[in-house]
Amino acid sequence: METDATYRGTVYPWQCDHVGHMNIMWYVGKFDEANWNLFARLGLTPSYLRTSGRGMAAVQQTIAYKRELLAGDILEVKSRLLEIRDKSIRFVHEMRNAETGEIAATCEIVGVHMDRQARKSTAFAPAIRDVARRHLEPAMA
């Protein structure tokens, strides 16, 4: 997959909890923003989702917290596609402290491609599956 970050940002003081580190709700929010950048690389752009009546829904999410992030820290998320199936994808985000390079958290997600009107899963278009296959981790291709 591309090595460009899917998210870059800063930890603001108001994102920290009473213990002084970034609260877990902000980890989830920053991973969510990375989702949409990853999806756009696969062709699941906002315009595609709007015009096709499709959407994406997370059905499983596993987060591992490794190092705390503090107010003022710069962070970066890089994402890797692990698996593409007919109606679902599995991918992982790695959040790092951009200054130290230390991994702060990882998040593995299974997402399902949805028909928004029918409110049920639907197959990815062949063009999207083809792009996704080109982005799979080499060991998974």
TrEMBL record:
Note one Pfam family from the annotation.
Answer: 4HBT_2
Please name the InterPro entries in this protein's record. 4-hydroxybenzoyl-CoA_TE (IPR050563), HotDog_dom_sf (IPR029069)
Q: Name one GO molecular function term.
A: fatty acyl-CoA hydrolase activity
Q: Which CDD domains match?
A: 4HBT
Cross-referenced Gene3D superfamilies, in alphabetical order? Hotdog Thioesterase
What is the protein named?
Answer: Thioesterase
Q: Which organism is it from?
A: Bradyrhizobium jicamae
For this protein, the record's SUPFAM superfamilies field holds: Thioesterase/thiol ester dehydrase-isomerase
Domain of life from the UniProt record: Bacteria
